[in-house]
Write a structure and sequence with these properties.
Number of strands: 10
Helix content: 40-55%
Order of helices and strands: EHHEHHHHHEEEEHEEHEHHEHH
Distance between the termini: 57 Å
Oligomer: single chain
Shape: globular
Number of helices: 13
Length: 421
């Protein structure tokens, strides 16, 4: 597929969640930058994705302090980030021991007071993740992102659901929510800085929130980290709102991002091309005999690979993927494959667990990326060409706009001189 120089195109990049498995798309983007000689923020218009995907997207959109129009980080810096900070964020073995004890509880060998302590203290220390993200993002705001940046999180506090009063309400009619289908519980939250389709330096409606808070919220994976509480200040009637959020992976996937956050921000005269970089599929089939054998607790037991939790995470994507792929057609590029199919080419597959930062797993993740790249070599070359063409087209349009402004300025100055004669 090639792009015409006259063709208006918007390119969206979706990076999956997956903790340490974020090293896979980090390697992938590093390779793209090496081949093209450009940075991802030079070529991509919309960055989306939850959790570890949000960590990557946010970092690649931070302006350079000395060259504000250029990104501070290359993708290779993010490879180093995972390799260096992974073991600090996920100290080895701690959570695996906790999971083992939970399994013992399922077999009813633990005392309740031991279990109560573990349930209250079973998270990884969020300050480790916080220190790494503070060092990465500094004081950068969401509104500073170089390109459109969409960070999903799930707000578990119903206090911030937008309530609409019915006309002529006497006080006896129950209030309803904005979408009229949900008035209790939490809700999906899109933290966005929209630059797509807007003139340069145009003011947008991004909330006043740090990248640190947005990404901490999107990365607060249940059972791994506690929820993240933060405030976001809006310039409209919403004012300042407080959120209590957990990982955006709870609801987000490429199909959901496309329908809920990306499509509406693509200019009507533009064609959307969507690139999806995966962290390895972890869903797998379950035989009916196994499912029935698991029982009520077994379907959420880590020793059985949390079968019900895995179904929750993959069900909506499987339901939407066919129609999503049909709508996108040849403009959809997916780079992903299963982590559950056993060794390939004599190499051990990476751990499906998001918290394995061991040197052995880092190497396995790199090998997984290399095999994924080799299996999709022609598609990879195609997206590199598309990305470079997109950058070139945008540069050509900017030059054209500058020439128009220059001509207009010359005309106005000539008119002003002539009028003074």
């Amino acid at each position: 597929m090639t792009m015409s120089t006259n063709q208006k195109t918007t390119i969206a990049l979706f990076n999956y969640g997956g903790g340490m498995r974020g090293l896979i798309p980090a390697h992938f983007m590093s390779r793209i930058e090496d081949v093209t000689g450009l940075r991802m923020a030079d070529m991509v218009d919309i960055f989306a994705g939850p959790s570890t995907g949000a960590i990557l997207n946010a970092a690649l959109n931070i302006p350079h302090p000395d060259h504000p129009g250029q990104p501070k980080y290359r993708a290779r810096h993010m490879v180093k980030f995972y390799e260096r900070d992974g073991i600090k964020i996920f100290p080895q073995d701690r959570f695996r021991e906790f999971r083992g004890i939970v399994h013992d509880f399922n077999n009813r060998t633990l005392k309740l007071n031991q279990l109560n302590w573990l349930f209250r203290h079973g998270h990884y220390d969020p300050s480790n993740l916080g220190r790494s993200l503070r060092a990465l993002y500094g004081e950068t705001k969401l509104s500073d992102s170089l390109q459109t940046l969409i960070i999903p999180a799930y707000n578990i506090d119903r206090g911030q659901i937008e309530v609409i009063e019915e006309k002529g309400d006497t006080g006896d009619t129950p209030a309803r929510t904005k979408n009229n289908f949900m008035d209790e519980g939490g809700h999906a939250l899109w933290l966005k800085n929209i630059r797509t389709g807007m003139p340069e330096n145009a003011r947008n409606s991004a909330p006043d929130i740090s990248l640190y808070d947005a990404v901490m919220a999107s990365s607060a994976a249940p059972t791994y980290f506690p929820c993240h509480h933060f405030q976001a200040a809006y310039s409209d009637s919403r004012g300042v709102r407080a959120y209590t959020a957990i990982d955006g992976v709870i609801f987000d996937n490429p199909c959901i991002s496309y329908l809920g956050a990306i499509r509406r921000h693509v200019p009507k005269d533009h064609k959307l091309i969507m690139i999806i970089l995966g962290t390895g599929y972890t869903n797998k089939s379950i035989k009916k005999e196994d499912w029935n054998r698991f029982g009520a607790l077994g379907v959420v037991d880590p020793v059985n690979d949390l079968p019900l939790i895995n179904i929750f995470f993959h069900a909506s994507e499987s339901a939407l993927m066919d129609s999503f792929s049909e709508e996108m057609g040849e403009n959809l590029y997916i780079f992903n494959k299963s982590l559950m199919a056993g060794p390939r080419d004599g190499h051990t597959l990476p751990s499906p667990q998001i918290d394995d930062a061991s040197p052995e797993n880092l190497k396995a993740l790199q090998t997984f990326y290399e095999s994924l790249l080799e299996e999709n070599k022609s598609r990879f070359e195609e997206i590199c060409q598309i990305l470079v063409s997109n950058r070139d087209n945008k540069e050509a349009m900017r030059s054209k706009d500058r020439r128009k402004k220059s001509s207009l300025s010359y005309f106005m100055s000539f008119f002003e001189k002539d009028s003074k004669k």
